[in-house]
Design brief:
The complex is a heterodimer of chains A (139) and B (478).
Chain A lengths: L4 E5 L4 E7 L2 H16 L9 E8 L3 H19 L1 E11 L3 E10 L13 E2 L5 E5 L2 E9 L1
Helix pairs in contact in A: 1-2
Chain B lengths: L6 E4 L2 E4 L9 E4 L5 H6 L2 H8 L9 E8 L6 E7 L6 E2 L11 E10 H4 L3 H11 L14 H10 L1 H6 L5 H5 L17 H8 L11 E10 L2 H7 L5 E8 L2 H21 L12 E2 L3 H36 L6 E7 L1 E10 L2 E10 L2 E2 L18 E4 L7 E6 L1 H6 L3 E2 L9 H7 L5 H6 L4 E4 L2 H6 L8 H10 L3 E14 L1
Parallel strand pairs in B: 3-4, 18-19
Antiparallel strand pairs in B: 1-2, 2-3, 4-5, 5-13, 6-10, 7-9, 7-11, 8-9, 8-19, 12-13, 14-17, 15-16, 16-19
Helix pairs in contact in B: 4-11, 5-11, 8-10, 10-11
Classes of the chains: A alpha+beta (139), B alpha+beta (478).
Chain lengths: 139, 478
């Protein structure tokens, strides 16, 4: 378990709190946390690269959009992603690259299906030089 | 919210009186001994939040299976009047649009099925795609999908999945009018493309059971559910298609709220006034997802019937008893304070339960009322109920929908450590087949509340009548 990622429990769903030194790293780690819910990331190789770009009206909505985009990529292209580099992150726009591979049932176990990244109890905050995001997923 | 905030109305009804920004009271159907569980999460506050929405009529209601949801509580029912500034809210429908249940009955007895149960369940598991990312149920092009979104269950029937007779026994005949494929995003089409005819994962299931107790002999005869009848439940929804439509429109309405001057206690309650462009577009897209789910269950029901015929031959006699929807918003006419009003009724984890005589109840059942199907958990029992007058008078013709979880998935997985859930169920003559052991652990019986408590409250409150109880024999989990 990474020290910067802390899952929390909820009766029907799952979520996590993620921390980082800056906003770009926070988005990258949240993405890692998403795929960590879906599979054992030790089994995923960074073979193919995807370029991503998302926009939203504030940083909370941007986090939801970013993770939703990754979940969409996972569900429609059957990919698992394991490495993320956020090139630029502002309050409303993010550009990033992600590496991973197509799901191979022989090597990968997909644990769960994420219906959606929710706005519920969502926070993306900075305090004392540490960025923290709290995100809940509908599974 | 604590118990002090609640006022007891009757032995089966509690109320959060109208206060602060609430436009109406919030009313929760429950029982004294169930109150601690109801108050354990934030669900009652969520019902009180719903009571703040513009144009809400009567009360923000919650059924006895109330639990925490996104924005609206699960088990929530709320009706909005378009003529009084009423709204429509994607959060009041939920992510899994038209998640619902179909019940089928066979002509087989438990004694006939039991010796071949394992091979029956294995064959069903092969025939009905299930599990995380399940795909490949029915091949559909993008163009097919648009037709499916307009036509619902009839689309599946036209392709040989089932019969016209099935459609008579599905809520709304398996097609909610108003579908507008032009308001569905490209992303939703892409998520929906591979998933037609798939069960999905999580709490979705296909269960073979049998009638083990009958409470109303006459009604059970009308429904074709005498004691000992082998039955099949299919529980699934609109898959990624519906999830994406909810996500798209939550974002759209999140932006629209300020424009319409709507003040919200929770961002997840995002909504738009009925009649506004945002509301029209959401309704049109939501109907597409509703119809996707109808088509999906119709196809799965047919695949299921085909397996029964393969295993048991013509004597299987699988036929649809009824199908209900759990998560949707639709326009219905209800009598409120003596006057008929056309309202947009949101049911999120709640079931329509129309009383005897209602024209929307299939002719074959009109004298007894609309069948209501309440699945429990895979180890205990499920119930078949009927809609009753109390529901028409108090809950916009609605009742409960299921058991509700009492353990998080993590907690259930922990409780299952060192145990073999499949083996435990097998020792009680229940065969389970699942894509993953983890799903079985998370979905274990103890992770759910006792559905008989939920049902009992609805019966005592006059919202429904009990017809029969079903015991699980075999279950497929995604």
């Amino acid at each position: 378990m990474q020290s910067w990622l802390r899952p929390f429990e909820h009766t029907a769903d799952v979520g996590f709190v993620v921390t980082a030194a800056n906003l770009a790293e926070l988005f990258a780690r949240a993405a890692w946390g998403l795929f960590d819910l879906l599979t054992d990331l030790e089994t995923v190789r960074p073979r193919e690269r995807s370029a991503l770009s998302v926009t939203a009206e504030d940083r909370g909505a941007l986090m939801v959009r970013w993770l939703s985009e990754l979940n969409f990529l996972h569900q429609t292209e059957h990919r698992l992603l394991c490495r993320f580099e956020v090139d630029q992150a502002s309050e409303t726009r993010l550009t990033a690259q992600a590496w991973g591979e197509r799901i191979d049932p022989a090597r990968h176990t997909v644990r769960t299906e994420i219906k959606a990244v929710t706005f519920h109890g969502l926070s993306v905050e900075q305090a004392d030089g540490v960025w923290t995001a709290r995100i809940l997923f509908d599974v | 919210m604590n118990s002090q905030a609640l006022r007891k109305v009757s032995d089966y009804l509690w109320e959060v009186p109208k206060q602060g920004k609430m436009r109406v009271p919030a009313r929760i159907y429950t029982r004294e001994d169930l109150l601690p569980a109801v108050l354990a999460d934030n669900a009652v506050q969520q019902a009180a939040n719903v009571a703040q929405l513009p144009g809400i009529v009567g009360a923000a209601l919650a059924m006895p299976d109330i639990h925490w949801g996104y924005g609206f509580p699960i088990g929530g029912v709320a009706a909005f009047d378009p003529a009084a500034g009423g709204v429509i809210s994607p959060g009041g429908v939920g992510y899994d649009i038209n998640c619902g249940v179909r019940l089928m009955a066979t002509r087989l007895s438990r004694e006939e099925v039991q010796p071949r149960l394992q091979s029956l369940m294995n064959r069903l598991f092969q025939a009905v795609p299930s599990g995380v990312g399940a795909a490949g149920g029915i091949k559909a092009s993008r163009r097919d999908l648009e037709a499916l979104a307009r036509e619902g269950a009839a689309w599946s029937v036209a392709r040989g999945f089932g019969t016209q007779e099935d459609l008579e026994r599905v809520e709304e005949h398996g097609c909610l009018a108003g579908a507008a494929p032009e308001h569905v995003s490209e992303r939703a089409w892409r998520r929906g493309l591979e998933q037609v005819g798939t069960l999905g994962s999580g709490n979705h299931f296909l269960e073979v059971g049998c009638v083990d107790e009958v409470y109303d002999e006459a009604a059970a005869q009308v429904l074709g559910l005498p004691l000992g009848t082998v039955t099949v439940f299919v529980h699934c929804g609109s898959r990624g298609f519906g999830h994406q439509i909810c996500e798209d429109y939550l974002a759209l309405m999140d932006r629209a709220v300020a424009r319409y001057g709507i003040e919200l206690p929770d961002r997840q309650l995002a909504c738009a006034p009925l009649g506004s462009p945002e509301a029209e577009r959401y309704f049109g897209a939501m109907c597409c997802a509703v119809n996707y789910a109808f088509a999906n269950r119709q196809a799965i029901a047919h695949l299921t019937a085909a397996v029964f015929e393969e295993v048991f031959g013509g004597r299987a006699g699988v036929r649809t008893v009824y199908e209900v929807a759990h998560n949707l918003a639709k326009f219905e006419t209800h009598r409120v304070e003596g006057a008929e009003r056309r309202l947009c009724v949101h049911r999120k984890g709640a079931t329509r339960a129309f009383a005897p005589g209602h024209p929307a109840v299939p002719a074959a059942y009109r004298a007894i009322g609309q069948p209501v199907l309440i699945p429990g958990d895979m180890g205990r029992y499920s119930f078949v109920l009927l809609g009753a007058e109390g529901a028409m008078a108090e809950t916009f013709g609605s009742t409960c929908h299921g058991a509700g979880r009492n353990m998080s998935r993590h907690a259930a997985a922990r409780a299952a450590q060192g145990r073999n859930i499949a083996q435990e169920l097998r020792s009680r003559n229940i065969v389970v087949v699942a894509q993953s052991r983890r799903t079985l652990d998370e979905e274990m019986s103890e992770a759910y509340k006792d559905v008989s408590d939920v049902v009992e409250v609805c019966v005592q409150a006059g919202l429904s009548k009990k017809v029969a109880r079903l015991r699980p024999l075999g279950c497929i989990k995604g």
